[in-house]
Amino acid sequence: MQRDTPKGGDVREVLDALRRIVRDLRRPARGGGAAGSAAQVFVLQALDGPGAATVNELAARTYTHQSSVSVVAKTLAERGLVARRAARHDGRSVELTLTAKGRAALRRAPRAPQERIVQGIARMPAASRRSLAASLRELVRAMGLHGEAPEMFFAEAPAPGRRRRSVRAGS
What tens digit of pLDDT does each residue of 5-51 get? Predict the structure, then answer.
């Protein structure tokens, strides 16, 4: 299949948009303070509200795979920012809530860039969101990245010797 040679303006426009997004993503990663990394701030923001959330509910709120959220939540619990307890409706599940220390850290934290991305995508018309998703899927596939597991932005790296699962093609 013959591919079109990309036009310089098209490539630059895409790269410039990605550069702006990446620059925004990096800002709080350096300045999360007591709340932690940008990933940790995003999870704390997702927990900020009435009631507890299971890891699966938190994954849905952050548009992230449950395994990635679980790692971040564990770190937050170890730091005393999140409390973990057996779920009331199912003792096999764990519910997460912000602690007083977590609420205080969140008040001082900058807004997570992931929140701005989610809000920006939500403001787009549905057809534009679908088109963007399809285009990004196509870009990921063309770059050979479609088998890699997506992780939260700026989440902690897995411990040495621990491998991340890859996702199946099409996932």
Answer: 666 778 888 889 989 888 887 765 554 567 778 889 999 999 997 78
**Is-contact 87 54, C-beta < 8 A?**
yes
Instruction: Determine contact, residues 32/40, Cβ cutoff 8 Å.
Output: yes
User: In angstroms, rounded to a whole number, what is the distance separating the alpha carbons of residues 90 and 144?
Assistant: 40
The answer to whether the beta carbons of residues 48 and 40 sit under 8 Å apart is no
Contact predicate 82/102, CB 8 Å: yes
**Collapsed DSSP state (helix, strand, coil) of residue 6:** coil
Cβ-contact 9, 105 below 8 angstroms:
no
State the CB neighbour count (10 A cutoff) for residue 156: 15
* 66 in Cβ contact with 59 (< 8 Å): yes
CATH of 23-142, one of 1.10.10.10, 3.40.50.10860, 1.10.3720.10, 3.30.870.10: 1.10.10.10
